[in-house]
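Sample 3 of the quickstart, ligand phenylalanine:
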Amino acid sequence: MKQYLDKIKAAKTLDQLEELRVALLGKKGVLTEKMKALGKLDPEERKTAGLALNVEKQKITQALDEKKSELSLIEMNAKLAGEKLDLTLPVNQGAKKGTLTPMTHVMMEIAAIFSSMGFEMAEGPDIDDVYHNFDALNIPEHHPARERNASFFLEDSEFMLRTETSTVQIHKMEKTGAPVKIFVPGRVYRVDLDATHVPMFHQCEGLVVGEKITLQHLLGTLKTFIESYFEMDNVPVRMRQHFFPFTEPSFEIDTCYEKKDGKLVIGKGDNWMELLGAGMVHPNVLKNCGIDPEKYQGFAFGMGVERFIMAKYGITDMRKLFEGDVRWLRHYGFPANEVPTRAEGLS
Ligand code: PHE
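Result:
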């Protein structure tokens, strides 16, 4: 038996080892033949010889197994060493780099500006309940937005796709009470489609609640934001009285523009374009969130992000923003390394 064990030990490859296994334990292997020969012995002899043979078989099997794992490891290491990646190879210089969509870029610009003004970013669910989308925002029962053909409702349920990011005002105030200073970027959904309306679009909401918050704070904040975003000093803004159920008083904020060579120029001329809705938070909204309107006041505003993109970057068809046309993106997209740098507040 020793000679077999020696042979096993000396095997250099898995193939050699397999040959040995067949020669010893295979159908016509040495040990198999010996097993067969046992039948010819008389019962007493068969018992002792059989026992001895079994021990021999066990030892050989064990030796084969051990050698097999040893050789497998060696062969695998050799294979790995041969397959090493050469990290010094030059990268494919010709590969085309993608761009950030104007939507992504502008969302980051907006976030950077509000962050630098000390606003915290907040988010909420796209699918919300009727309470957060309407009731808590003081939107009356008969309001047209509640019509089933104006908003997207989930079948037979109290849930819907939110129609405005104002829902997050409620979520935030319910969660933390006052004071609050947040901006809320996000998607909203309405049943609408033409060159300037799409059924899914983006808003950025703002909400500040504290003691002694006034209309002056609202105006100052929006003026600073508009001037930072359009990278211009003294952009003329106009406040027009308006109505929103969740603010009182309510306003729309406009800025002036002119068209030059088919392009929009913001901050000049005598046309006015609506930029945002805003107002002082309605006492009912504060009450709905458990905040005492005698002690706290607040202002809120909401803007359509697509409108801001179109006004700053000269895009005329809103639908282009969502079509994913690579040629369009190559022209209007932004290199990924041009990320606005004031986004410390983002988390
Ligand atoms: N939610 C309003 C809209 O979608 C905008 C708005 C937000 C107005 C906050 C006032 C205060 O038109």
